[in-house]
Amino acid sequence: MARMVTLRHPSRARPRRRRWWLAVSLLAAAAGAAPIGAAGAKRAPRVTLASGVVQGRWARVDGKRLGEFRGIPYAAAPVGRLRWRPPQPVPAWSGVRDARHFAARCMQLPLFGDMVFRADGMSEDCLYLNVWTPAASSHARAKLPVLVYFFGGGYVAGDASERRYDGASLAARGIVTVTVNYRLGVFGFLALPALAAESPRHAAGDYGLLDQVAALNWVRSNVARFGGDPRRITIGGESAGSISVSALMVSPLAKSLIAGAIGESGAMLAPLGPQPLAAAERRGEAFAAAVGAPSLSALRAMSASTLLRATAPAADRKFVFYPDVDGYFLTARPARSFARGAQARVPLLLGGNSAEGAFESLLGKAPPTPANYRAALERRFGPLAGRAAVLYPGPTVAAVRRSAMALAGDLFIAHTTWRWMDLARRSGRAPVYFYYFDKARPLPRHPAPGATREIGAVHSGEIEYALGNLGGNAVYAWTAADFAVSRIMEGYFARFIATGNPNGPGLPYWPAARAVRGGVSRQTIGIDTRATVDRNAPRQAFLMRYFAAKPATP
Fold first, then answer.
1. SS3 state of residue 515
2. How many alpha carbons lie under 13 Å from residue 347 in its C-beta half-sphere?
3. Are 426 and 483 within one domain?
4. Average pLDDT over residues 527-541
5. Fewer CB within 10 A of the end CB, N or C, for the chain?
6. Distant-in-sequence, close-in-space partners of 478: CB < 8 Å, separation ≥ 6
C-alpha cells in the first residue's frame, strides 16, 4: 500500500530560512527534479515526479553516496476492474511519498527457496519499482547510463526487492539502476476469449509483459529526474527476466525504448517460445471452469488469495500461465522476428552457465552409468537417440555426468540462449557479446553433513557476481577468488551499460561473437576469464530439429 507523509520544516522559529527553502523547492519542482545532491547531507533525497514527490534515503557503497528510492508506483493498482487489463497510469498524490521501503511483491506461491525478499508483504497491488542513483550526479543534467532489470522466477515467482538484484553496487559505478515488479502467474498471463473481446486490440494475456513496457515508459519519462539519460536505457534480466528481454527486443511497444540489452540464461524461443493466443485461451477457460467461475466478472470478483491457491499444482491438474502471441505485445513469434532482423538493433550481451541443468533431470534416481544413460536417451529421443549419443557422448560414468548435465541444461534453457545469440549475431546489425559463466559457488558457510561443492555454475548462480552482490548473500563462504570474478563480471556489465561494449581498462579482452575456427567466439568468465570458442552448433542444430517436431509446452 502507498505510504503518504507530509514533511514539515523542523523549526517554526526561523521563517526566513523556511521561506528560502520553500522557494528552492518550488524552483526544483518547476525544473522537474528536486535537487538531490544540493540540499545538504542531512536531508533525505527527494525527487519531484509528474505524479508527485518521492523521498528516499541515502546509502553508501564503496565510499560513494547514493540516493535510493524504493517502492515507487509506475502504474495504477491492477485490482478490481483493472485485473487482467493493461497497466493504467499512476494516480497523482499530494504531499511527499515515503520511498524508503520496498512495496509488496506480486501474488505468488512459495516455490523457490533461494528467493530472499525484502518486500513489504504480498499483494495484488504490486506495480512498483526501485531506483538507485549516484547521489553526486542526481540532477537532470547528469545524463548517466541506465539499467532496467527484470527478475527471474519462471513468471510465477520473484520480486524486485530480492537482495541479489540490489542496484547499489552498479549505481556506485555511475549507473542509474532500476528494478521492476510485474504481474505473475494467473494474474499476469491469464487469457480468455472474454478478455480478448473486451480489448480494443483483441488481445489477452501478457499483462505481466505489458507491465514491463509500462515500467520502461515510466523510466523513459522520469529517469532524467534521477540523473539518468532516457536515451541510454539498457534492459537486463535473468531466466524469466532474460526471456522477457528477448521479447521486449521484438515487441513493437518496447523496442524503440532501449539502447542495449542483457540476457542471462533464457530467451523466448523453443522450447520456451510463446503459445498461440487460442491455446492460451483454452487454458484460461479450463482454469475458470476449475474454480467455478461462469464469467469474467465472476473471476474478477474472486479474491486474489483464492485465485492464487487454485494455481497450486495438484495430483489431477497443473495450470501453466505463460506468454502468448497476443497480437499487441507480440505480433509474431520472437524466433521469426529475430530471423527477419525485426528486433531492436542495439548491442546485446548474453550468455549462460556451465551447469544450467543437472544430470538427475534426465536419469532420475538411476546411477549415471552408460547403460542408464543410453536408456534415458531412448526414452527422450526415440529414433533420434543415436544422434544424441554422438553429440552428447557417455562412454564412461564421468562422461555421462558431463554430457547428461550439458544436455539437461540445453533442454532446459541453454539452447534458447544459444539460439538467441546466433539469430541476433546473424540479423541484428549490432554487436553481440556471448559469455559462458563457469564459476561454481563455494560451499555454504554452514554446510550439511556430506555436502559437496557444486560442479559448475548452476542456473541463477551468476546473478550476485554480475550485479556485485556477493556480500548480500550470507549463505555461501565467498572467497577472494569469488570477489575477483565478480569484479570482472560486474565490470563487463557496467562498461556495456555505459558504452554498448563490455571492454574497458583492467578487463580481459572480450571479442564480439563471430564465426571463428569452426565455432563462435565467446567469453568464458570464471577463475580464468578469457576468450574461447563455442563449437556447440551441431548440438544446437539437433535440438532445433527436435523441438520443431514437438508441440510447444511451456
1. strand
2. 19
3. yes
4. 98
5. N
6. 442, 470, 471
Do residues 294 and 152 share a domain? yes
Half-sphere exposure of 292 (CA within 13 A, CB side): 2
In this structure, the answer to whether residues 404 and 284 fall within a common structural domain is: no
Known catalytic residue at 459: yes
Say if residue 87 is exposed, middle or buried (CB neighbours under 10 Å; 0-12, 13-18, 19+): buried
Q: Are strands 515-516 and 57-61 parallel, antiparallel or unpaired?
A: unpaired
Cell matching residue 183: 504481474
- Peptide linkage before 271 cis (omega within 30 of 0): yes
Question: Catalytic residue at 239?
Answer: yes
Q: Are residues 355 and 213 in the same domain?
A: no
Q: Give the SS3 label for residue 477.
A: coil
- If you average pLDDT over residues 330-349, what whole number do you get? 98
Cα–Cα distance between 351 and 493 in angstroms, integer? 12
d(CA 250, CA 26): 41
Say yes or no to pLDDT of 406 above 50: yes
Segment 81-118, tens digit of pLDDT? 999 999 999 999 999 999 999 999 999 999 999 999 99
Structural domain range at position 305: 43-310
Residue among 137, 459, 464, 521 flagged as catalytic: 459
What are the residues facing 276 on neighbouring strands? 325
Confidence of residue 550 (pLDDT cuts 50, 70, 90): confident
Among residues 138, 239, 251, 337, the one annotated as catalytic is 239
CB atoms within 10 A of CB 467: 28
Segment 140-150 mean pLDDT: 91
Catalytic annotation present for 356 = yes
State whether 303 and 353 are in the same domain. Answer: no
Q: In whole numbers, what is the pLDDT of the chain averaged over residues? A: 92
Domain check: are 249 and 387 in the same one?
no
Q: Angle, to 10 degrees, between the axis of helix 397-409 and the axis of helix 370-381?
A: 30
Residue 195 has a pLDDT of 98
| CATH assignment at residue 212 | 3.40.50.1820
Per DSSP, the three-state class of 234 is strand
Domains held by the chain: number: 2
Mean pLDDT of 178-188: 98
Residue 319 lies in a domain: no
Based on the domain organization, do 253 and 195 belong to the same domain? yes
pLDDT tens per residue, range 213-238: 999 999 999 999 999 999 999 999 99
54 and 130: one domain?
Answer: yes
CA distance linking residue 327 with residue 142, whole number of Å: 38
| pLDDT tier, 554 (very low <50, low <70, confident <90, very high otherwise) | low
Burial class (CB in 10 A: 0-12, 13-18, 19+), 307: buried
Among residues 356, 462, 464, 490, the one annotated as catalytic is: 356
Say whether pLDDT at 138 is over 90: no
Bridging pattern class, strands 519-525 and 515-516: antiparallel
SS3 409: helix
User: Where is the domain boundary, 262, 282, 310?
Assistant: 310
